[in-house]
Amino acid sequence: MERLRGVNLTQIRKYNLISTINIIKDHGPISRIDIGKHADFSPGTCTNITKILLERKLIRETSTGESRGGRKPTLLELNYNRGFVAGIEITDKIIRCKLYNLELQSQKKEYQCIFKNEKDILTAIKKSIDNQLSHYKIDKKDLFGIVIGVPGIVDTIKHGMIVSTNLKINSKIDIYDSLRERYKTPIYIENVGNLIALAEKNLVFKTESSLVSVIIKNSGIGSGIILNNEIFFGSFEDAGDIGHITIDRNGPECVCGNRGCLEAIGNIPAIKQKAIHGMMSGRKTQISKLADNDISKISLEIIRQAFDENDEFARSIIEEEADILYNGVLAIINTFNPEVIVFSGEISKFGDYLITRIKDQLKKTIFAFYIDRIVICYSELGDDAPLLGAGIFAANNFFKNPEVLFK
Ligand SMILES: [Zn+2]
Asked: Which of 113, 180, 331, 345 would be 216's cystine partner, CB 3.0–4.6 Å?
């Protein structure tokens, strides 16, 4: 027997509730009779279950449907504004937070909060959520889930981030219990690559296809994998950490303890470092002019701008990056054979030339015969992808287990 506030639910009753919610979500507006047909419920069960959901305001009565001989039936639909979910992304210095209703319509503005060190992260998360709740006048009890995307290894059983090379975190940050205590809602901490993959899969590609999202942002390179319509976590929740596959065994030491990892050779600081090295060694390049001879001003935009002005050195930097990423892409193709590989993060500044170069390299391999059928592209969702993915993750979990509705 499972006890929810005011309602004693046997497993079967809980199952009936979840079935009804999802039938109304997928087929609403829908009559009670048709819900019964979809779920194989008796009319009495259907009346009881819909009564509970009407009382909790998760569904509402709407227009009347077509009569099949008797009185016109009242139709039921989901009230997507009954609750909200919070999508959060922790980047290297900033916490981003956005609220979504259960249909994933976002509140207009996201909130950003800067944090200085790992001790500040919990406070910054709370500040972000509280700001959004108060700004949009949403009661804490109507928060149906919080999903936090992090660029690191996550222990989903013990609910914590164990380590993040990107955030320079080396100890588990205990944010789960504190947030659970404060908001009394389901809390999920997820690798941000998984959340981006979920957003791309659900909002852009919308097919049954398998998909790998590769995120190249700040000092990190990570990925998220969707196989058979589900996030592929692996046995120890760390699948997709492609930043740490070896590209050059004699390469530079990586923060993970290995040598020559994709992340160590191909991350954003490594790209900038090549441009800096060129400038410092007196290489003739437009990059120097565009950066006002100031190495602190070097960015991927400037390298791209120089490339657009036919700068040979800028071209060589982009080509070298494409060749490094090609190795990562080849490993992904050989391991998962996905139909879609989507890049996101700052790397998109390098534009089509980088993607074309990767594809051209792939066409030189024995896998060439199906390379044209693999979509390799940049994310259309851009910076919104992590928060949208967090929103999707939270909403999906609510519809799988709406227990929070009875808190
Ligand atoms: Zn590594």
From this structure: 345
